[in-house]
Amino acid sequence: MSKKPVQRVKHVPQRTCVGCREVLPKRRMIRIVRAAEGVQVDPTSKLAGRGAYLHDRRECWERGLKGALANALKATLTSDERAKLEEFMNTLPQDAEGAGMRE
Predict the structure, then answer these.
(1) Which stretches does DSSP call E strand in the chain?
(2) pLDDT of res. 99
(3) Residue 76's Cα: distance from chain center in Å?
(4) Burial code of 31-44, b = ≥16 C-beta within 10 A, e = fewer?
């Protein structure tokens, strides 16, 4: 009698958006990192430093920039860092999917 191979379920890391507190797979989020060079967007999710995650929706970025992001990174955002993050936020598409979620 032979044993059947066990199907392993692949572990998917989960992260919480600091803007809306929704939990999603890590790969669907954008990582912001506080490193020695300052706070910056981490497109590879591999930079060393304290990280926080946000959706790719402007609504979450606006909430995050009000204070939740700085709190999660345990740092105060300088005006230059805030300007860089707002510049990145402005490249994001306007919320098409977010409008249907507020029911």
Answers:
(1) 14-16, 23-25, 30-35, 38-42, 50-54
(2) 42
(3) 18
(4) bbbbeeeebbebee
